[in-house]
Amino acid sequence: MNKLRKLVGERCFLSPVDISETEIVAKWSNDIDVALKTGDISDMISYEIQKSYLEGMNSRSGYGFYIVDKCKDEVIGIARLMRINFISRNAVMGMFIGEKDNRGKGLGTEATKLLLDFGFNILNLKNIMVEVVSFNEASLNLCRKCGFKEIGRRRKAIIYGKHEYDEVYMDILDEEFEDFVIEEHLR
Predict the structure, then answer these.
(1) Which of 155, 66, 170, 73 is nearest to 111 (CA)?
(2) Residues near 81 by beta carbon (within 8 Å), at least 6 away in sequence
(3) pLDDT score of 47
(4) pLDDT of 114 above 90
(5) What is the DSSP string of the chain?
(6) Average per-residue pLDDT in the chain?
(7) What sign for the dihedral angle of Cα 104, 107, 98, 89?
(8) What pLDDT score does 32 carry?
(9) Selection from 64, 69, 57, 90 nearest residue 79 by Cα
(10) What is the CA angle 38-63-123, rounded to 5?
(11) Which of 157, 120, 136 lies closest to 7, judged by CA?
């Protein structure tokens, strides 16, 4: 495949998003299990729209990365920082693993830590927040494992059919983050 290795962990690495994976990302964006958890279920994402999203992901207000499994050398998801405010030094993080067989293996946790390392130690951010639908226990557990703390809820903010869910807000501060990959390169 030959993806660029921006931040490298033990089992995965982050590579800057480009349009080369438009087809697979469009497939994931239209997968009901992924779209329900990312909040994109009502979006009509064609290949052209997905390509446009990917082209715009790396801008002054955001950074998007493919999550690449080192063993398989394949893109398995996306991790991004968005709504970056460089004056107040904060951002919102989003991340998902596309294929079900790649979930629950710790790759999302490692990718999250790499993205946090980038945000705190390269972009010099102070606060990174996530927004998670309350039924998404896997994401909530991953965030807790990485050091995020719940800071609030927007009650019954997400409605699917006859079900109402809270939107859970969690954040982590730079001084709470401990898993530095970049530090190794500074020695």
Answers:
(1) 66
(2) 62, 63, 91, 92, 93, 115, 118, 119, 123, 125, 128
(3) 87
(4) yes
(5) -----SEE-SSEEEEE--STTHHHHHHHHT-HHHHHHHT-TT----HHHHHHHHHHSSBTTEEEEEEEETTTTEEEEEEEEEEEETTTTEEEEEEEE-SGGGTTSSHHHHHHHHHHHHHHHTS--SEEEEEEETT-HHHHHHHHHTT-EEEEEEEEEEEETTEEEEEEEEEEEGGG----SHHHHH-
(6) 92
(7) positive
(8) 83
(9) 64
(10) 125
(11) 120
Q: What is the pLDDT of residue 86?
A: 95
pLDDT score for 187: 65
pLDDT at 96 over 70: yes
**How far is 129 from 80, CA to CA, in rounded Å?**
12
> CB of 162 within 8 A of CB of 127?
no
Per-residue pLDDT averaged across 176-180, rounded? 85
Separation of CA 95 from chain center? 2
The CATH T-level fold of domain 7-186 is Aminopeptidase (3.40.630)
CB 74 within 8 A of CB 94: no
Domain positions in the chain:
7-186
**How many angstroms separate the CA atoms of 73 and 28, rounded?**
18
